[in-house]
Amino acid sequence: MSHRPPSPLPGRRGVLRGSLAATAALALPAIGGAAAPAFALSGRPKAGWGVQAGDVTAHSGLVWVRSDRPARMIVETSATESFRNPVRWRGPLVGAGTDFTGTTRLRGLPPGEQIHYRVLLADPDDPRRTSEPVTGTFRTSPVRRRDDVRFLWSGDIAGQGWGINPDRGGYHVYEDMRALDPDFFLCSGDNIYADGPILPSVTLPDGRVWRNVTTEEKAKVAETLAEFRGAFRYNLLDENLRRFNAQVPTITQWDDHEVHNNWYPGQILSDNRYTEKNVDVLSARSLRAFSEYFPVSTLPPGDADGRVYRVLRQGPLLDVFVLDMRTYRDANSPNRQADDVTGILGAEQLAWLKRELSTSRAVWKVIASDMPLGLVVTDGAVNFEAMAQGDPGAPLGRELQIAELLRHIKHERITGTLWLTADVHYTSAQHYEPSHAAFQDFEPFWEFVSGPLAAGGFPAAKLDGTFGPQQVFLKAPARANTSPAETPPYFGEVEIDGGSGELTVRLRQEGGDVLFTKTLQPGRVGQ
Asked: Is the pLDDT reported for residue 331 higher than 50?
């Protein structure tokens, strides 16, 4: 534990440039600014990056914190905000090995209850010296069928150079989402843009100037572990996000921009901004930082093997199946091969998903996909990034895995499936109908797209007819990379009624306005 402690905030050279420093500092955690390391070690530990909870179920959950120095993490829980008769959980000793972050697993929690928690950081040499408590709350999943479930989803944060803008109050969309007080938030990936530097300012087409909070790590693409950690830390500079994290637990997945645009295993980058061009090296560093900055039950320290895909049981009404369409995929290509065992999920993950869907007893099975199914997402002039490749005929390439999965859902009579995603930086609803499809051995289903939260907006992608998508709602800008000042951030809401079992999807935008609503009936293989 003799490592030099982290600078609690980026140093003066790292936070902003020139005249932006004064205004942007309003968005920064108040934990000492550009204090020297020696000063940072005086007094008590501090937890200025807030707290967050993740992967909450009926009886368990994970709580996260970051210290400004080596410290013992302690969590206290209570049924009330007054913390009468709290239960104490002794967490890990956090240090340089995890960038001074720590996660504590809480077990044996009461189901369907509001849990209040506070995190203390204790000096390892003098346990009586503890930080000021940082408080948070979350609801455990219900075990009664009649209890409603409601959650939000979106993705794509700090992308295309659009970062925390103090003139707009930072990421204000998180305040809109917090006001809805959901049971949890599903982040569909692109939590950071490791390949997208954040500059101090960007001039918009109409002459206005967009201003960003910037840091030293976000001034370039992320290559080193320290730079990936800094990229994950960047969003926590926003006070809206920190308030949201303290109230709403998360289920987090990843996609390409956690590493590099459109990456796949084994790729060697041609991007001349990088000195480290081996994507396998970069993705390993990113996954380590990802596991340090998000409470994910299947990543270290909870699971030494480490994987992003998992299922989260949210009571009798809902199971959430979190996919990983990055780690196990084959190389991006024209995607027209007649045989593709690896596909976009890999054989092992596909077998896991089929098995878990077949054994699920939840009324609704949400498949959290980090990429859309029938939207054509390109990678250069001839290659494709997602499943669809624009050929409306029989399944080819990565579509073969999706066809196998959809056939499995139909023949196993698996009820209540729907797909949620982000990725394409607009919001839409697609209904997949066999009668309109080239491949017809499946039951109808819905796919809903919502995002970005804080990134550039992009025009709608073309539809691929293989699985017969019919776009019943779309809101997208007409040109590429519109700023959040021009195209509002989007997020989605899912509400499951405990009485009827009906599931209602609402596509929303910043401010909370509802753009589209669809209600689905329970107990059906197709919708």
From this structure: yes
Pair of tokens at residue 121? 């950081």
What percentage of the chain's residues is helix, strand, coil (to nearest 5)?
20, 25, 55
CA angle, 82 as apex, 79 and 88 as ends, to 5°?
A: 60
CA dihedral sign of residues 275, 277, 278, 279: positive
pLDDT tens-digit profile of 144-194? 999 999 999 999 999 999 999 999 999 999 999 999 999 999 999 999 999
Looking at residue 5, the DSSP 8-state letter turns out to be: P
Structure tokens at 379: 């990678």
- Taking the C-alpha atoms of residue 464 and residue 470, their distance in angstroms, rounded to an integer, is 10
9 has pLDDT over 60? no
Alpha helices in 326-373 (DSSP H): 347-359
- Strand partners of residue 379: 383
CB-CB neighbours of 338 under 10 Å: 9
Using CA atoms, how far apart are residues 225 and 282, in angstroms rounded to an integer?
A: 8
DSSP, collapsed to helix, strand or coil, labels residue 483 as: coil
Does residue 29 have a pLDDT over 70? no
How many other C-beta atoms lie within 10 A of the C-beta of residue 25? 16
The angle, 0 to 180 degrees and rounded to 10, between the axes of the packed helices 279-293 and 225-234 is 50
Residue 65: strand pairing partners? 51, 102
At position 276, the amino acid (one-letter code) is E
| Alpha carbon distances (Å) from 180 to 75, 493, 495, 500 | 26, 9, 11, 22
- Specify whether the backbone of 49 is left (phi greater than 0), alpha (psi in -120 to 50) or beta: alpha
Residues whose CB is less than 8 angstroms from the CB of residue 258 and which lie 6 or more positions away in sequence, other chains included: 189, 190, 191, 192, 194, 286, 287, 290, 326
Omega prior to 92 cis, within 30 of 0: no
**Residues in contact with 519: Cβ distance below 8 Å, sequence separation at least 6, in sequence order:** 502, 503, 504, 505
**Alpha-carbon gap, residue 48 to 67, rounded angstroms:** 8
Q: Which two tokens stand for residue 253?
A: 């997945």
Contact indicator for 527, 514 with CB cutoff of 8 Å: no
507: left (phi over 0), alpha (psi -120 to 50) or beta: beta
